[in-house]
Amino acid sequence: MKALEVVLRRLKPFLNRTAELATLQKACGMYGAATSNKVQPSFGLLFDIDGVLVRGKAPIPAAKKAFQKLLDSRGHFLVPVVFVTNAGNCLRQTKADQLSHILGVPICPDQVMLSHSPLRMFRKYHDKCVLVSGQGPVLDIANNLGFQKVVTIDMLREHFPMLDMVDHNRRPKRPSSPTVKLPNVEALILFGEPVRWETNLQLIIDVLLTNGSVGNAHDTRHHAHLPLFACNMDLMWMAEAQSPRFGHGMFLVCLENIYRKITGQELKYEALMGKPSELTYHYAEYLIREQAAERGWTTPIRTLYAIGDNLMTDIYGANLYNRYLEERSWPRKTAVQVMQANVGGIVGRVSSEALPQDQDLEMVWERELAPPSATSCKSVLVCTGVYNPHAGDQANASHSTAEIVFHGHRDFQLDPALVEPGHMVQDVQDAVELIFQQENLVPTREP
User: Fold this and answer.
1) How far apart are the first and last CA of the chain?
2) In the chain, what's the furthest Cα-to-Cα distance?
3) How many CB atoms sit inside 10 A of residue 228's CB?
């Protein structure tokens, strides 16, 4: 291996492009050799995007400076980095390309985790007919996640045009007779907030109250409805406007209240994903471990740092996952028991009714992700997004419980300890500098 390193160093002046050198390194089994003789990182970084790295499509000035510190002289990340966003209206490749352009550093799709990414694990639904709601290329997104039979809201309204009646301008002049019959819907996936809320709310309710047979009349009698998955629970998010905008969590509030108003029953979720769900952080840690392994790093990842701007999602989720890791380390307590305890405590992240037997559950998680190697997840709050320390934010964890307006999802409990950030800094550049100090990491650049 040392002989190969010597050869590569001698060849380097003749390789005009960094990509050629990287390809040769990987072919020689030397991917990540830049850190082979240095202390290997035992921590990984989880970055939120909106409000931390960008505002709308514009980069936050501190972001580029922060990422200059995270790269060595050859453009390799010094530590494993995953971008964890609750956005879900695009493919990972698209988001990676956007981030690469904005930050000026090479980001690969395996470093991007969208709110819907954990759906890859729900293989038992991949061959079922699923209705998807959201915007962007929802059909491509669902296919990319492994779902083989997908029906979109637009496909549903085209086959049943008399169901979408709110907008008078879109009402059909005469009933149509579709030539292709849609299969019955067997599960629903809500990727993110749609463009036309009234259309999506109406047709989702139609599917739930007809058990997937949309052409039939509603049945509002009490019975279990079809499996429902929701990605991205953000009540609000920060764009270019001076105040936060409605997010998918607000759409879920509408849907839940409509369902309860019509049926008298609570809407139940097979799984809720996206921050602050532990499922999301567990999957993000898996991506961190995979990235470290690909780089040839053998030191276990023991600490995760989650950097975000939203107390109710980024901070709450990181602290919740930290609690999960702490509980998991207790003697004689298996991961299955911890997950079941958490499900019972905060109903809805993974439906307790849908949990398989202990052995089956353990096999699923072991097969898909393997147990976590991290022992802690530390939250770092930045003040460039949703959180504004000068705005009298009632969600500030320093306030009493009675004063906190909980913006989290209905199925998550308010615990003031979970919205208390481990660290609070001005921006992401300060966050990276703080973490490097915490980990005694001094970046060194090779000539």
Assistant:
1) 21
2) 77
3) 22
Whole-angstrom CA distances from 214 to 135, 209, 252 are 21, 8, 21
Q: What does 225-244 look like in DSSP terms, one character per residue?
A: ---EEEE---SEE--SSSS-
Could you tell me whether strands 112-113 and 81-84 are parallel, antiparallel, or unpaired per DSSP bridges?
parallel
- Is 357 within 8 Å of 273 (Cβ atoms)? no
* Residue 54 DSSP symbol: E
Higher per-residue pLDDT: 371 or 426: 426
Model pTM score: 0.79
The whole-number pLDDT of residue 281 equals: 94
Q: Kindly report the number of other CB atoms within 10 A of residue 43's CB atom.
A: 20
DSSP secondary structure letters along 252-300:
HHHHHHHHHHHHSS----SEEESTT-HHHHHHHHHHHHHHHHHTT--S-
- State how far the Cα of 8 lies from the Cα of 209, in Å rounded to an integer: 65
Q: What is d(CA 48, CA 245) in angstroms, rounded to the nearest whole number?
A: 17
Residue with tokens 């936060």: 244
The DSSP call for residue 222 is S
What six digits make up the tokens of 221?
């009698």
Distance CA 95, CA 310 (A): 20
User: How many CB atoms lie under 10 A from the CB of residue 12?
Assistant: 12
Q: What is the tens place of the pLDDT at every residue in 230-279? A: 999 988 877 778 888 899 999 999 999 999 999 999 999 999 999 999 98
Taking the C-alpha atoms of residue 410 and residue 388, their distance in angstroms, rounded to an integer, is 24
For residue 118, give the DSSP letter.
G
Spatial separation of the C-alpha atoms in residues 30 and 416, rounded to whole Å: 47
Average pLDDT on 198-214 reads 95
φ/ψ bin of 379: left (φ > 0), alpha (ψ from -120 to 50), beta (otherwise): beta
List C-alpha distances in Å: 229 to 5, 192, 319.
Answer: 49, 11, 23
Find the helix packing angle between 61-70 and 92-103, rounded to 10°. 100
Q: Which residue is listed with tokens 């005469």?
A: 174
Q: Which residue has the tokens 């559950």?
A: 361
| DSSP 8-state code for residue 313 | I
* CA–CA separation, 54 and 435 (whole Å): 20
How far is the C-alpha of 148 from the C-alpha of 151, rounded, in Å? 10
Distance, in Å, from the CA atom of 366 to the CA atom of 324, rounded to the nearest integer, reads 16
